[in-house]
Specification:
alpha/beta; 22 strands; about 20% strand
Length: about 550
């Protein structure tokens, strides 16, 4: 008998097509049969909950920051509990492979606010292949695909300084990138408001995108601005795609800050024009208004040049400190997307130094009132005492933009979740159910079939996944069963670590990872690697 029969259930297959009723048989990690309802006799296990649940492909998180969390907490419950069976890591231009000893120390410190900096984790890998092998050997719950981080390449070859790469350095970065793609990375990411990735000019990025295009991967940039100049920053990336032929995926493509209220149609018009010209462009968003990053990201780029120690030294120097004040309070910091920092929108979500725990959940403006000091001095104090590891929520989004972008034909879902800190952004636990519940069932922004397509089949196509992302015979059994009447995000900004409602079952490669709402400790996920020779990821 087969391993599993999901009997007489509504199926939303991930194509965007209409729901249909079927018996679905799972065997050997794959979907073995999709039959007329009530026609399959049985299996080793039978799920017969078709009166309330629907069956869909497992959700794909197109923007994940789980690079270390997959190793330190392989059960990965925040993602598993919201139905995510595959995630794309290596985001925003900074991650841990490829790497060398000197660069590893800088990266660990610089993005401790994204991923933590566990002292007891063995960081002995150096190549992308070794990192992916480590994930596989450790055992992970969801599948994972990896993007080569352009900022890390620049750290390894050029260093932390703000300068152009020499021709020899650019050649070396292209070689490292090509090797990483041969080893299975699905593309390249950039963080163009983060150092040192932001120091690359357009021609440098183009030279790297040419390599990505040769391998059939895609480029996923965090653009140079999401505030003032956001449309120009998007235009630069779209022109890169035109110039190099590289597929482009615009990550967390929101239109935040006051400057961009109501301007989402302008972004979508740019994308549509490029699509009409033959460019391959997609985008992802999270279904919330606030963003999330590190407190140090608000610093101007010149203050971060040279790495964490250099940045802390500048903060400690009175004269340099006054220059930083001018940028964040008056001129507009490029680290804050070209706008001045509005301290009442900056909420502390996590700290590494336990002495600072009392500030978690408070805005910088509120802390300033409490401590009777200017907000910018609170900013400097937290950065110094927490060694740049503080994470924040940034309350700068606009609902009309969120809904407009969500409806686009090339839109996909991404959590952009930072899983560290006591009060992380609730998107870490609630992104997928919020799409299904709040925006689809409650508001009707998307139909249920279309929403599932945004979260499954469409991202699978972007990733060029072989036999994943749809409920189809022969495909890997990455599946989620949810109740469309009750599914909702329970995570809130006050209590973000809350399991979603209405998602009782999740299968990864045919194994139950979530069973009746409880994790099983089965680690059936694996890394999904680009096979450039055959033009697919598997």
């Amino acid at each position: 008998m087969a391993d599993l029969l999901i009997r007489d259930i509504d199926v939303i297959d991930g194509t965007g097509g209409a729901v249909f009723r079927a018996d679905v048989v799972v065997d050997g990690g794959r979907i073995a049969e999709i039959a007329a309802p009530g026609t399959v006799a049985g299996a080793d296990r039978v799920l017969d909950e078709g009166e309330t649940l629907v069956l869909a492909p497992g959700f794909i998180d197109m923007h994940a920051h789980s690079d270390l969390h997959l190793l330190t907490d392989p059960g990965h419950f925040p993602k598993l509990s919201q139905g995510i069976t595959t995630e794309v890591i290596g985001q925003d231009g900074l991650s841990y492979a490829p790497i060398d000893e000197a660069t590893l120390d800088v990266v660990r410190r610089q993005i401790a606010g994204w991923n933590g900096n566990p002292a007891d984790l063995d960081f002995s890998w150096r190549t992308v292949a070794q990192y992916l092998d480590r994930l596989d050997s450790a055992g992970i719950t969801p599948n994972a695909a990896y993007l080569v981080p352009q900022g890390t390449l620049r750290l390894m070859v050029v260093g932390s300084e703000k300068r152009d790469a020499t021709p020899e350095e650019l050649t070396r970065m292209r070689e490292l990138l090509a090797q990483a793609l041969r080893e299975g990375a699905v593309g390249m990411s950039s963080g163009l408001t983060y150092t040192p990735g932001m120091y690359a000019d357009t021609s440098e990025l183009a030279a790297l995108c040419e390599v990505v295009a040769e391998f059939g991967g895609f480029y996923a940039p965090h653009t140079r601005s999401y505030g003032a100049g956001a449309l120009g920053a998007y235009a630069e990336m779209i022109e890169l795609s035109r110039r190099t032929g590289c597929a482009l995926h615009l990550t967390h493509a929101t239109m935040n800050f006051g400057e961009n209220r109501g301007r989402a149609p302008e972004l979508l018009a740019m994308i549509d024009a490029a699509l009409a010209d033959g460019c391959d462009i997609s985008l992802d968003t999270y279904p919330y208004l606030p963003g999330s990053t590190t407190l140090s990201a608000l610093l101007p780029s010149w203050a971060m040049s040279g790495g964490p120690d250099a940045a802390l030294a500048r903060i400690a120097d009175l004269g340099t400190r006054l220059r930083i004040v001018a940028d964040v309070n008056v001129n507009g910091s490029d680290g804050c997307h070209g706008v001045t920092v509005e301290w009442e929108t900056i909420q502390i979500s996590g700290v590494a130094n336990p002495d600072l725990n009392r500030y978690v959940g408070k805005t910088v403006a509120a802390i300033a009132i409490e401590r009777d000091m200017p907000p910018v001095e609170v900013f400097f104090d937290l950065l110094t005492r927490d060694q740049l590891a503080t994470t924040i929520l940034q309350h700068v989004g606009h609902e009309e933009n969120v809904r407009t972008i969500m409806r686009h034909s090339r839109h996909m879902g991404g959590t952009d979740a930072l899983l560290v800190g006591d009060r992380p952004h609730p998107r870490a636990w609630g992104t997928m159910p919020r799409y299904l519940g709040h925006y689809t069932r409650d508001l009707g922004v998307l139909s249920l079939e279309d929403c599932v397509h945004h979260l499954t089949g469409r991202p699978a196509q972007r990733l060029r996944l072989r036999e994943r992302g749809l409920v189809r015979t022969g495909y890997a059994a990455d599946l989620v069963l949810f109740d469309p009447a009750t599914v909702r995000d329970a995570a809130t900004f006050e209590h973000p670590k809350q399991q979603a409602d209405g998602i009782p079952y999740v299968l990864v490669n045919g194994e139950f990872a979530l069973d009746a709402g409880k994790p099983t400790a089965v680690r059936a996920g694996r890394t999904l690697r680009l096979d450039a020779e055959h033009g697919e990821t598997r």
